[in-house]
Sequence to fold (462 residues):
Amino acid sequence: MNNYYKKWIAIALSCYVSGIGAQNAATPSSRFKDGLKIYLNNDSSRYVQGTGLAQIWLRYNDNNPGSTVFGTPRSSSIDVGLRRVRYQVLGQVTQHIFFYTQFGLNNVNSISARKPGLFLHDVTAEYKVYKHYLSLGMGLSGWNGTARYTSSAVGSILGTDLPTIEEATNDVNDQFVRRLGVYAKGQAAKLDYRFSVSNPFPVQTAATAPGGSAVATLSSTNTAAYSTRAPELMYQGYLKWQFFDKESNLLPYSAGSYLGKKRVLSLGAGFAYQKDAMWYTMPDAAMAGNIDTIPAPLQQVGIDLFYDSYIDREKQNGITVYLAYLHYDFGPNYIRNAGAMNVANGTNASGSFNGPGNAAPLIGTGEVAYAQAAYLFRHDALGKRGTLQPYASTSLATYQALKDPVLITSMGINWIMAGQNSKLSLDYQSRPVFYRQTATGEISEVKSARRGQIVLQYQVAF
Fold:
């Protein structure tokens, strides 16, 4: 091609691009009118949005008896850690199609693996079948059942941590409460519902299974553990009746507080079921004393009440109350110890049943009552520096495997500087310490051995 034709082709392409630019130049800034949100059409009904969040902890922990860090005894610990880091990309790409992705990391402190990789939390594609009444989706998701905070919105947690006692299978047969599967959701009048069917992950691939091993093990007779057989499907559902303002069900995660901007009262109930998720051993008299391995289902049901409302709409002061009752059935005498972003990784001969660091008997077969409450001062209580939100929470669990109930309490205060985008929280938690009695085998609390931790958390989000 000679230079003459090249010249005219270049001029034609320039005119074409300039024409497109002139058509779109009318409102380029309006595409970004709500932060990191790009609108794909003029009426803003289609968009792609990005968000990010980090929760950074400065913590002092009074370690459980006998705790060690790589073999070195530590009666207490001070650490800085990345409790959660999240990035989300979501979009309404057509009238009916919505996609959602979330990736990030959790629990990075000085004793965790170096250079942790970001991993996928959610990847879902969803089709709106009929208005707000029914949407169907599939992928890696947290559309869980049982209770409100089985799927928590981490950016609006009331305290420094979500009610982990409602995340009963966290990272054992799920990926931080997410599984691959399909779901249905919708709202009809004041009813909000969700149902899901998913493939639980095999426990052999868990980063840390119960007992700290790569797979679940049967440690004693009539004591259930997660089965290492190929997992069956899990069925979950949660319904809630919304008496006042409606909450969004765009994403599966429930807010901890609306900071005086809404008036919400909801009554919910949910369930989770997985056939043969557990197993345990029992002597079989018919087999001349041989041990028989018996499968057992994983079954959970829960009811809860959430109230979050302004007292004065203009002042945006308000109260938050949440109450939940949970029934967990993981097979006979199942118990699991856990501690958020643990500060120790071993115990010596004087160790307790709790295990190292800040662990406690958190999940087991039995009954759980959970409550949290908060008061939010007016939005300008500190002038231009924001406002304060004191809170308290408690869980009381009676588990088959333990002689005494598990009482965990926490109290603290949030300094709300710029809504949930900039928040400083100070939290104190008290937890029990359990020992197994050598003579009887009973696992009971030693009242004088309770331990505590203090956390200062800064949350930044966009």
Remarks:
- The first helix runs from residue 3 to 24.
- Confidence is low (pLDDT under 50) at residues 4-29, 209-214.
